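Dear colleagues,

As part of the handover before I leave the project, I'm documenting each prediction I ran so the next person doesn't have to rerun anything. This entry is a single chain, and its sequence is reproduced below.
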Amino acid sequence: QVQLVESGGGLVQPGGPLRLSCAASGRTFSNYAMAWFRQAPGKEREFVARISTSGASKSYAASVKGRFTIPRDNAKKTVYLQMNSLRPEDTAGYYCAAKPIAYSGTYYHERGYAYWGQGTQVTVSS
């Protein structure tokens, strides 16, 4: 089992950067694929980015591709979401999620992940 704690959210101006962190507990962080999802008020939770256990494979939602990156540091048991060129439409609660090896479900939907953090709010506004 793994516990996830997000940090780094806040208020940022349009065009600015922000980096979110997700720290994991437990001994086998490297056994989990990780992802970031977001949820805006009145909307469903949506996929943002994912990274494989080793970090060799990554993918992004079309709306963030080229602006966001998802590095991970297995030694620090942490996954990040580096967000650049932020837009007001990026405003949402951001959640990290962990997918154990062999856990069923797609990488691109919340049902594919077994563990979730509590979320951190990102607001993009001038």
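The first strand starts at residue 4 and ends at 7. The chain is about 0% helix and 45% strand.

All the best with the project,
I.
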